[in-house]
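Subject: for your reference before the review

Hello V.,

The reviewers asked for a structural picture of the protein, and I figured it would be easier to keep everything in one thread rather than splitting it across files. Below is the amino acid sequence we used in the manuscript, unchanged from the supplementary table.
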Amino acid sequence: MAALLLIAPPAWAQAFPPMVPPEGYAKTRLVGEWFEVAATPWYLETDCHGTTVSVATREDSRLVFKLACRKGSVTGKIVPIEGLLAEVEPGAFVLRLVRLAEVRVPLIVLWQAEDDSMAVLGAPDGQVGWVWSKTAHPDPKALEEAKSVLAKYGYNPRYIADIDQGK
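And here is what came back from the structure prediction:
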């Protein structure tokens, strides 16, 4: 008899409603340099500070994803996390990491500012939630509004932490 394996969602995840990307989302809106200004815990970003993300186009339909994690402090050693974002439908992606090919993270763009200055991404299973900004220190009200999008989609607000970007 086969055993039933139940995997509990992470502690920062509550009940997850269906995640729906903005209608007609164009993936090119993610292209550019971003500061990770808030996030839920993710095992690959333990003790990261001053985290930045670069998203670039490729010759094919995928996007290049480069996350720079500074270990220990905003001046710490950079640990790169690189991968490809493959769009499965508008606003829905699968992140495949280069050095950890077995890691595949489904990501949904949950919200993006009209001027593309901030974006909120989440994983349907709750393994990661990110708030990205084009500036290291976004307006506090705008940041709180972006974090509320993660909460709306089931992330426990107690676990959505601001990311230190230094001065």
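For the response letter, the relevant points are probably these. The helical segments are 140-152. The radius of gyration is 16 Å.

Happy to draft the paragraph if you're swamped.

O.
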